[in-house]
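User: Hi! Is it possible to get a structure for several chains at once, not just one? Here's what I have:
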Amino acid sequence: MRDARVAWASARLEWQHLGRDRLFLLCTLLAVVNFIVVVSLFGLTGSHAPTALIDEDGGPYARQFVSALEQAHHSFRLEPMSAAAALRALRDGRLVAAITIPAGFSDGAASGAIVPIRVDVDNVDIDLTDDVQRALPSAIVAFGTAIGVSGVHVHAEEHDLLAHDTDYIPYLVVSGLALDALVVAGVLGALVLVRDFEPAAGRVDKLWRLAPVGPAAVLLGRLLAAATVAAVAVGLTFVVVVLGYHVSPRSLPQALGALLACVLIFTCLGGLLGVVVRRTQAVVPLVFGLAMPFYLDSGALEPARLDGERVWQIAHLSPAYYAIGVLERAFHGLQVTPEPVSVDLLVLAGCAAAGLLAAGMAARRGQPR
Amino acid sequence: MSRWLAGPRAGWALAMNDLRAWLRSPWAVAAALVPPLGMGVLVAVLTLAVSKQPVALVVEDRGLDAERMAQIVRGDREAYALKDMSLTQAEAALRQLQVAAIIRIPDGFGAAAATGDAHVDLLLNNIDVDFSDDLRRTVTRSVAQFDAPELGGEAGVKDSLLQAAVRQLAHPETAGQALTATGNPYRVAVDEHDLRFTTVSFMRYQVVPILILAAVNIGLLGTALLCVREFEERTIKVLLLAPVRRGFLLGGKLCAGVLASAALLTLLVFGGVWRGALRPPAAHWPALIALLGGTAVMAAGLGVLLGTLVRRSRVLTVVGLNLATALFFLGGGFTTVAFLPDWLAAIARILPTSYAIDGLRQTLFYPDLRGVGRDLLVLGAAAIGSAVLSALALRRGWNGR
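Assistant: Yes, the chains can be modeled jointly so their relative placement is included. Here is the combined structure:
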């Protein structure tokens, strides 16, 4: 009971601290929104490769071919231009490719001849280069079908597992929410504890040993305060995602619950990092820096297992992997981890408990100083 | 003479003091090393998987046409991470996310192909549109290769010519005629010209964000936190009372940040060269070194400015996170600024990291150094601008305390 009172008092003290620092709170809110916005940028360049279109024919078949290019699985953002301008832009890295439809294309296609189209590719980025190389046959097949060619023996027939594809930006912003929680809750959790160990704050940790309660109560109160602020910040991002990106969760209670769980868990892990590292100078770059590899290897862009077994195995080290599994399920109804959501949640809860326990032990270890 | 040297000496002493403080903390060193190394390892692993789709191939027809179709799919090793399975195994793998799709060549494929009515089934786990489109493009290409082998790229053209040669052997009356790849019913062929001899690998392409992450992380956040320490521990008053020009104090702080970033970047560059991930043309090395130096100075300059403006580590943390996030992501860490919508690209152009990333990509992946001079100029201007603004911010500190 006494420990609970101390924890509550510690939380209240921290709330007052944070409440007085309006600039800090404002910047925290800005940070989470900023993070989600810039993370979603990836979705703007993942498809629709900027491609120059040089139409030297202009005939009906050329127009039909351009239409097939435009509909080739979100592959091209066609920009009509001259050959010289296209080459310049390609060499400057402003285009992925330049497609030239030669003069006589329509006549050739009408007569049944095979007409080659010139495609200049800036093969600097293997991902985009592959997209272009694979999209062109798609467009050619669509063109052939549209003009009713004969001699085609095989067709592809697609059966989708899900009723519709989830657009890329809505997918990214949901995984962005997990990473947002990781960065903000992690940093706040670390900051509220690291302060006591720093000379500038007078090494308050020394006083902990004089207190008639264990450090766990003080620590718990501080983390509760940090988690509250992080929850408000992540809540704001949630509103931005729903209203700004028009991404509504399929299950609101599940989505909110998952977000809250993420906040609590990452605050605890941040707290652990704070108690272990004990320097703001180290802890902030560490959280921010680690967020980037976590971002790549947590199923943020696509299910981690589809990147290969080794990547998937490494992904299990990242708490963001489980968080994204839960959130994508709650928002889009997608299963992005082979493990069921209940297992993901269990692992997250285990991480939080382990983080809290380890932080308490680390704080106790520091006491005799 | 010694009076003239007093300022630089004080600045240098300050820089060394900051560096020692940084090196004394193993966690600070870890914070510098772990993120770029972690990202490097991850990128190396991802290189094996990028642009390859994990797919199960189920062949139910035993005829020659089905085998040919299966060989087309199996032969495209760049596009598929393929596993031959039974339908039951494949469906289980699809549920477990071991594969993203099942390509099924159904029973009766050969007979249907003879009448022009064969189909290859694609059972797709269409989780997101980006991933699904990749698979749709790839499978459409494979299927199209059945009738038009040349649509499969270079390998497809060879396949097509081989078939033409076989035909010529079967029909000796055509001997002496040029071998031409025929049989493309779609009437359009692709004549591809690549800008560079070999496609840049994912690993090599991702070296740039790793370097920028290191610079932003340590140059900006690390330097800013070292600066703010002087304000929080009140040692700034002592520093300002020292008989040294304020410029030397700022120079010392900047120098510490630059040296820490430069040390880290040097380590990463050596690692990159050793692993073969960093291979600029020989003539581009001076430009590369200048760009990395410029990036380190720019990041440390912004760090000093941030530290002297904000002065409290807690606020600095979140302001720094905002800035670092924008500099890394919006600057083009994981994207190409030129491919963003115009209005967004215009905003990105305000950020000095976009010039650093542009310059590094130009130096590493392009044959000439077009635009690198401008990039260096912007980085230098950002560093000088930060230093001037820091001096002004410090003046506020002098008057205000």
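Residues 53-148 of chain B form a domain with the abc type-2 transporter like fold fold (CATH 3.40.1710.10). The two ends of chain B are 33 Å apart (CA to CA).

User: Great, thank you!
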